[in-house]
């Protein structure tokens, strides 16, 4: 299949050149998905899906065009190339558009490329039985587990030709705690793995989160408004700090000039205990992205290293336009360095605060101000995790928050997508009734 996709990519590049492109890039992918669905605790569906994707990019006269198709037969290639050039002709010229230069090409095979569907079904059934036995108050509302085999080729007119053949198992589960007519807020667990050696309940933080769902059936609301410490679970670190990094160190905030970090490269932007980056090649990441959208071989890099802004997460176009270094990958595989204290010790140091499992709020303001609802959360008082909270408002400023770090846990959770610890920040406004 990889050789077929390589020939397809080269045909597509030839079609782009014939249509008038000065430079072109092609991404072509074939994906096979085997999927089990569970609804209401019972198996409801098994299906196999086949997906094709072709993406063409062309630069002509400094103008860039892009087109995506779900077919790549010869007729579609010619038609897509013409459409891509037409899109370029209607765009504004910009000399900063470019693709990866010629480099050593790569052919990567990794992960579970040969699915074991019998064992996958066994692990699914095992998980349902374990939840029923160990967490009887938890209702699994929807559970999708799948195996994906992906063949992917990226090529450009500069001589780049990279291929990837990979396979992995993915789990997405939505559930909540129930007792009588009372119910917790819903929770979502996700995980990715390259093997089925362990029970699914042991992946990521699934077992811990199932126990939390039972504890959240009965909730309280903290009285009044107070300033306290916010402890983020690894999932919430991914959501909240991931949003911060993309807004402050990503392309949009830098190109439009609204990022508070735009002039802070190599300067302190956080507590020196914070190191966080994008690391698709980390051995704990399952099938991390190996080639960028512009045809570069991916490398790990830290955005923040020991509290200093180490790099921006920029693609080639934005880097050229801003005269800044290009980010070494364009993945979402966040890895944050652990601290030297266990979570229990960090919590024991907190007089009053909140342990946040999920944050629901709009996009933070350009200066980092945020406000939203803490869900799947618990009150922290006198150094102990206490009652589950009903939906409670939290607010603060992300830029300031990074300097008000109380601690990063020694524990990390590996989801297959990310490797993240718990992180505690002081100075957060917590608003109850």
Element layout with pairings:
Layout: H1 2-19, E1 23-39, E2 42-60, E3 63-69, H2 74-89, E4 107-111, H3 117-134, E5 138-156, E6 161-179, E7 182-183, E8 187-193, H4 206-215, E9 225-232, H5 234-249, H6 251-255, E10 276-278, E11 301-305, E12 308-309, H7 316-322, E13 334-336, H8 343-348, E14 352-356, E15 358-361, E16 369-375, E17 377-381, E18 384-389, E19 392-397, H9 398-401, E20 405-414, E21 419-431
Parallel strand pairs: 4-6, 9-14
Antiparallel strand pairs: 1-2, 1-5, 2-3, 5-6, 6-7, 6-8, 9-21, 10-11, 10-13, 11-12, 14-17, 15-16, 16-19, 17-18, 19-21, 20-21
Helix pairs in contact: 1-2
Overview of the molecule:
The protein contains 9 helices and 21 strands. It is an alpha+beta fold and about 425 residues long. The mean pLDDT is about 95.
Q: What would you report as the Rg, rounded to the nearest angstrom?
A: 24 Å
Specify the biggest β-sheet. Answer: 9 strands, mixed
The overall strand count is 21
Show unreliable segments: none
What is the mean pLDDT? 94
| Class by alpha and beta content | alpha+beta
Beta-strand residue fraction: 35-45%
- The H-and-E topology, N to C, reads as HEEEHEHEEEEHEHHEEEHEHEEEEEEHEE
CA-based shape:
globular
Q: How many angstroms separate the termini?
A: 60 Å
């Amino acid at each position: 299949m990889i050789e077929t996709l390589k020939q397809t990519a080269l045909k597509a590049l030839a079609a782009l050149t014939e249509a008038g492109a000065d430079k072109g890039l092609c991404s072509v992918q074939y994906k096979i998905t085997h999927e089990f669905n569970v609804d209401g605790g019972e198996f409801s569906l098994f299906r196999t899906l086949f997906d094709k994707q072709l993406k063409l990019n062309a630069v002509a006269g400094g103008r860039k065009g892009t087109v995506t198709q779900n077919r790549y037969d010869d007729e579609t290639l010619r038609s897509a190339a013409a459409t891509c050039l037409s899109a370029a002709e209607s765009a504004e010229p910009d000399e900063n558009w470019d693709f990866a230069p010629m480099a050593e090409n790569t052919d990567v095979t990794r992960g579970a490329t040969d699915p074991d569907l019998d064992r996958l079904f066994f692990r699914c059934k095992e998980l349902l039985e374990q939840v029923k036995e160990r967490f009887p108050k938890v209702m699994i509302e929807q559970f999708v587990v799948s195996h994906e085999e992906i063949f992917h080729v990226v090529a450009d007119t500069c001589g780049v030709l990279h291929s990837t053949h990979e396979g992995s198992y993915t789990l997405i589960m939505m559930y909540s705690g129930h007792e009588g007519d009372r119910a917790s807020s819903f929770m979502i667990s996700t995980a990715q793995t390259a093997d089925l050696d362990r029970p699914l309940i042991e992946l990521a933080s699934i077992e811990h989160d199932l126990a939390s769902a039972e504890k959240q059936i009965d909730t309280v609301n903290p009285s009044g408004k107070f300033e306290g410490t916010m402890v983020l679970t690894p999932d919430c670190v991914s959501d909240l700090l991931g949003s911060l990094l993309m807004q402050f160190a990503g392309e949009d905030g830098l190109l439009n000039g609204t990022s508070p970090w735009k002039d802070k490269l190599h300067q302190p932007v956080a507590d020196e205990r914070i190191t966080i980056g994008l690391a698709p090649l980390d051995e704990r990441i399952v099938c991390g992205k190996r080639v960028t959208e512009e045809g570069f071989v991916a490398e790990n890099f830290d955005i923040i290293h020991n509290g200093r802004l180490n790099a921006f997460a920029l693609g080639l176009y934005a880097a050229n336009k801003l005269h800044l270094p290009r980010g070494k990958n364009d993945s979402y595989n966040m890895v944050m360095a652990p601290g030297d204290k266990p979570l229990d010790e960090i919590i024991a140091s907190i007089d009053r605060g909140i342990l946040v499992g999920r944050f629901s709020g709009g996009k933070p303001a350009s200066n980092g101000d945020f406000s939203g609802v803490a869900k799947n959360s618990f009150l922290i008082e006198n150094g102990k995790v206490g009652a589950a909270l009903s939906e409670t408002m939290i607010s603060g400023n992300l830029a300031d928050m990074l300097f008000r770090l109380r601690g990063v846990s020694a524990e990390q959770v590996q989801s297959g997508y990310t490797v993240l610890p718990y992180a505690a920040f002081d100075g957060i406004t917590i608003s109850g009734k």
